[in-house]
C-alpha cells in the first residue's frame, strides 16, 4: 500500500511525535523520516484515509505549523550525499524543494533562490513543496549542493533530486486522494473533494503563469 505523505512539520520533530499523532487512526507499519517531511505506512488503507482527512492542514508542534498530509505515490526524492547522489542512482535535472512557508512564499521567491545556479525551465508549486527544473543536470547538481538546508524567507528548506525529471508533466508525485474507494470514506462527514494534482506551472521562457481549474463532483 502506498504511504501517506506528511510535510511542513518542525525540524526538531521526532519519529515518536508523528507516531503519536498518526497512530490514533490505526496501526502503523513504519514511518520513514526525512528532513522536514515523512512517509507514514499504515496497515489499513481506510485508516490512512481517515488520517489524511483529519490531519491535513492541522496545526502541529511547538511552532504550530499547518501540516500537509496527503497520499503519496511512493515516489520519493533520490537519497544523496552532500555532493552527489547515493549509490548508482543518476541525478536528475529536477529538484524537490520542501518546507518553505506556503503562505508567504511566492513563485518568484523560489525562482530568485535557485536562478543563480543555472537556467530554470519550469517551477511547479504545491502547498509547501515545489519542483524546480533546470536546463541541465550540472546546473541542478550545483543547486542541490548550495541550497540544501538554506533559507527561503527565514524557513530552512530541504532540497533533493526528484525521482525523475518533471518535463512539464502535470502528474503529481505526491498524489491527491482519489475519488471513490471504500464506503468508510464516503460515509465520513469529513469527506473533502480532492485537490488538483498541481497548482502552478510557470514557463520561465514566456514568463506566464498558468493556474489550472478543475471541477470535482461529489462522489
From TrEMBL:
GO terms for biological process: mRNA processing; RNA splicing. Keywords: mRNA processing, mRNA splicing, Nucleus, Phosphoprotein, Repeat, RNA-binding, Spliceosome. InterPro entries: Nucleotide-bd_a/b_plait_sf (IPR012677), RBD_domain_sf (IPR035979), RRM_dom (IPR000504), SRSF (IPR050907). Residues 2-74, 93-164 form the RRM domain. It holds the Pfam family RRM_1. SUPFAM superfamilies: RNA-binding domain, RBD. SMART domains: RRM (SM00360). PANTHER family: SERINE/ARGININE RICH SPLICING FACTOR. Belongs to the splicing factor SR family. RS subfamily. This is Serine/arginine-rich splicing factor RS31.
Amino acid at each position: 500500500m502506498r504511504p501517506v505523505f506528511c510535510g511542513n512539520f518542525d525540524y526538531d520533530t521526532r519519529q515518536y511525535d508523528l507516531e503519536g499523532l498518526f497512530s490514533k487512526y490505526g496501526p502503523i507499519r513504519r514511518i520513514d523520516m526525512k528532513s522536514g517531511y515523512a512517509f507514514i505506512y499504515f496497515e489499513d488503507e481506510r485508516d490512512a484515509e481517515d488520517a489524511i482527512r483529519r490531519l491535513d492542514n492541522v496545526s502541529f508542534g511547538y511552532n504550530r505549523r499547518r501540516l500537509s498530509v496527503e497520499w503519496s505515490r511512493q515516489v520519493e526524492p533520490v537519497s544523496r550525499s552532500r555532493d552527489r547522489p547515493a549509490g548508482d542512482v543518476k541525478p536528475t535535472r529536477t529538484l524537490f524543494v520542501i518546507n518553505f512557508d506556503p503562505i508567504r512564499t511566492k513563485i518568484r521567491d523560489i525562482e530568485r533562490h535557485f536562478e543563480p545556479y543555472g537556467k530554470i525551465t519550469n517551477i511547479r508549486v504545491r502547498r509547501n513543496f515545489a519542483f524546480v527544473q533546470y536546463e541541465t543536470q550540472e546546473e541542478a547538481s550545483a543547486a542541490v549542493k548550495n541550497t540544501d538546508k538554506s533559507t527561503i524567507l527565514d524557513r530552512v528548506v530541504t532540497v533533493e533530486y526528484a525521482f525523475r525529471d518533471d518535463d512539464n508533466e502535470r502528474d503529481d508525485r505526491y498524489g491527491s486522494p482519489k475519488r471513490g474507494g471504500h464506503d468508510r470514506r464516503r460515509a465520513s462527514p469529513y469527506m473533502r473533494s480532492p485537490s488538483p494534482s498541481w497548482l502552478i506551472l510557470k514557463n520561465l521562457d514566456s514568463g506566464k503563469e498558468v493556474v489550472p481549474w478543475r471541477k470535482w463532483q461529489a462522489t
